[in-house]
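User: I'm preparing a small set of examples for a lab meeting where we compare how different chains pack in three dimensions. I only have the primary sequence for this one, and I'd like the structure in token form so I can line it up with the others. Please keep the answer compact; I'll paste it straight into my notes.
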Amino acid sequence: MLSVIPSAARDLAIEGSASLDSSTPPTYVGVARNDVVMTIREITDREEWERFWESHAPGALFQSWLWGEVVKKQLLPLTRFGLYDGSKLIGIFQVVTVRARRGIYLHVRQGPIVSPSIQRWSRVTDFLRDQAKREGASFIRVSPPVADLVQHRKFLQTLGLLPAATHEVDAERCWVLDITPGEEAILAGMRKTTRYEIRHAQHLGVRIVTTTAPIDLDKFFVLYGETAKRHHFVEHRGIREEFDVFVKEGKAVLLLGYYQQTLLSAAIILFLADQAIYHHSASVPTDYSVNYAIQWEAIREAKRRGMKVYNFWGIAPLDAANHPWHGITVFKTGFGGREVQTIHAHDLPVSPRYWPTRAIEWWERTRKGY
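Assistant: Understood. Below is the structure token output for the 370-residue chain.
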């Protein structure tokens, strides 16, 4: 189930968690311990939380302290927990109680951040199961930030977790670009047509405005509403709260793309650990290459801030031509880079009420075809 490391190494080793590309999910190997008394308690110390998060899974946006503040700003119930071996912190997980029309469940997005040993995860899942029962929840949904490997899937299934019936969520499959080389080298690594569109925008005089002013967010929402109607998706909640929390820490910008005096495109970029995240966007159909110009300016801004990775966020499978994200996937992959895939969300059923929810999610995924 898990590869064994030498018995002298008492804790689980983590491979890849401190790599240059923080968007790369780590692969874990380890050996179980039989002499551990592990406890779980709430963490209220930001420094303690962030120190562990940055050293183990800095690519897990939804387990960052700041994202927890976004959730709280939306008045949603969230608690941060730590798993301890004595006084040593060995795992963290932010838990949100979701009260949806289909029922109540506990959601640990891009978490828990806990090395997959049976003892550690059993302690966490037992704790979450008790929490779920107290909240009246029917299931627990987790999506640990680990590579999508057979041994990781088997490990979760050993603990009674099932692959969620829903489609891929939370950028389980994303596209990342190493931006440590110089600008010319980054341009050289792009698809020829992408380079052309960037230069075409420059030739046309496309103007990109970088702002953090809350009033400018209203301009974004005008385009965002139009984009949602055109592509038939439900608008994300909490974007305003997200922008407010990250801007106050100097970790977000809004890019507005104009041709002459007309706003044609906008994007919200987050900066976390050593990566920039292209998290939200909106645009109107145009032939003026504004979307390309915005991405290029976002990459340049990320380099100015010392970021090492530009994360284009979610994409469709590269061979899924009929996927509704196919067009945006072609756009993102044109900038160069590579695909990173983490394990699909998994559910831990707590009550029989889970099964109707699972059936509905399965049907919606089947009906949409992705």
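A couple of notes for your slides: The mean pLDDT is 89. Residues 52 and 89 are 8 Å apart (CA to CA).

User: Perfect, thanks.
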